[in-house]
């Protein structure tokens, strides 16, 4: 899957154009928000902008962290939601049944392999995320898009994008209160905040990206 999408041959568009595509995506795995995902992006970004007004790279990271959910759209392969959204988790160790979409684990042959069914599996405690193979999903896709298109976001921003859905029951925890707890029925005025976020996109990304 990674090799297929690493070609970045599905589209060429700007970051904001991609944000607008998420008007077409409602994340079925998210019990807290039934609005199009563009609202989640903006609510997350605005919450961080309020608390950390001087960290513009963090505002932009929040804005784009879920853009990989375009994988659910027809022009990007129309992957089923269970393969795109929800928790990401390390493969090669025991699955946790509290993961979103865990029912699909039973169809994975790894679930029947004893070598992969202990807590640490093929890993050792404290080995670090660089040595862990994560499940494919929207996190890894957006990380790949940003990196391959030459973003100048600092490495912490790329780390957040790549691991923000990492399920907290596993050894290596990454949990953002802004991603989880910024959701609200109070919608963000998209056109009002667009100029600010467009200025950050122009600062950290090329005008058009390959997706």
Polypeptide structure, described:
With 211 residues, the protein is mostly helical. The protein has one domain. 36% of the residues lie in helices and 2% in strands. The chain contains 8 helices and 2 strands. The protein has a two-stranded antiparallel sheet with strand order 1-2. Helix 4 runs parallel beside helix 6 (155-163), helix 4 (56-64) packs across helix 8 (190-204) and helix 5 packs antiparallel against helix 6. The two termini are 14 Å apart.
What structural category do the secondary elements indicate? mainly alpha
* Radius of gyration from CA coordinates: 17 Å
Give the helix tally: 8
Determine the N-to-C terminus distance: 14 Å
Mean pLDDT over all positions: 86
What proportion strand? under 5%
Number of domains: 1
User: What string gives the helices and strands in order?
Assistant: HEHHHHHHHE
Placed side by side, the strands forming the largest sheet appear as 1-2
Describe the sheet with the most strands.
2 strands, antiparallel
Helix content: 25-40%
**Contiguous runs where pLDDT drops below 50 for at least 5 residues:** 171-176
Q: How many β-strands, per DSSP?
A: 2
Shape: globular
Helices and strands in order:
Layout: H1 2-5, E1 12-13, H2 15-21, H3 37-51, H4 56-64, H5 138-148, H6 155-163, H7 177-181, H8 190-204, E2 209-210
Antiparallel strand pairs: 1-2
Q: What's this, in brief?
A:
The chain is mainly α. The chain has one domain (about 1-90, about 135-210). It is about 35% helix and about 0% strand.
């Amino acid at each position: 899957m990674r090799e297929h999408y690493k070609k970045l041959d599905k589209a060429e568009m700007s970051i904001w154009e991609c944000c607008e595509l998420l008007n077409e995506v409602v994340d079925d795995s998210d019990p807290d928000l039934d609005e199009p995902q563009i609202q989640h992006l903006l609510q997350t970004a605005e919450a961080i902008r309020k608390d950390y007004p001087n960290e513009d790279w963090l505002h932009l990271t929040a804005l784009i962290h879920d853009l990989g959910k375009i994988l659910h759209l027809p022009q990007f392969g129309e992957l089923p939601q269970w393969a795109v959204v929800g928790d990401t988790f390390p493969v090669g160790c025991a699955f946790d049944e509290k993961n979103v979409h865990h029912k699909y684990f039973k169809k994975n042959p790894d679930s029947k392999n004893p070598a992969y069914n202990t807590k640490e599996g093929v890993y050792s405690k404290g080995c670090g995320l660089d040595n862990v193979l994560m499940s494919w999903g929207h996190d890894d896709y957006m990380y790949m898009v940003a990196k391959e298109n030459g973003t100048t976001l600092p490495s912490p921003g790329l780390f957040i994008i790549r691991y923000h859905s990492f399920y907290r029951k596993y050894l290596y925890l990454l949990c953002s209160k802004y991603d989880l707890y910024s959701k609200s029925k109070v919608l963000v005025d998209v056109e009002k905040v667009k100029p600010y976020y467009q200025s950050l996109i122009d600062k950290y990304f090329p005008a058009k990206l390959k997706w």
